[in-house]
């Protein structure tokens, strides 16, 4: 297996790329929208709203949490998920800054 090139880039670049990769799936975009709308909820609430199985929603939540887009807090038997607003704002600001410099926006 080849060496990773991520060490050649800044922490900010790697973090932003990880977040962008986590959002590169329509189910994850739908999950993020649901979390923004609801404020917070457990996996079962998302399963009721989306055409996905519980196991699939759980996998997507795990990927989004690892990327830093969402937070999960254990409440009894369940984990309550919410958007990590600070992380999402930082990502949005970084993307917007790049697009402004490029003259796109």
How would you characterize this protein structure?
The model has no long low-confidence stretch (mean pLDDT 89). The protein is globular, with a radius of gyration of 15 Å. The protein is 60% helix and 13% strand. It has 105 residues and is of the alpha+beta class. The chain has helices spanning 11-22, 26-38, 43-49, 54-67, 85-101, and strands spanning 41-42, 70-75, 78-83. Helix 1 (11-22) runs antiparallel to helix 4 (54-67) and helix 3 (43-49) crosses helix 4. Strands 1-3-2 form a 3-stranded antiparallel sheet. The longest helix has 17 residues, at 85-101.
Sheet/helix structural class? alpha+beta
Helix content: 55-70%
SSE order, as H and E?
Answer: HHEHHEEH
Instruction: Compute the number of helices.
Output: 5
Distance between the termini: 39 Å
| Main beta-sheet annotation | 3 strands, antiparallel
- Report the radius of gyration as a whole number of Å: 15 Å
**Oligomeric status:** single chain
Strand elements, count: 3
Which shape, going by the Cα principal axes? Answer: globular
Average pLDDT, all residues: 89
Strand order of the largest sheet: 1-3-2
Low-confidence stretches: none
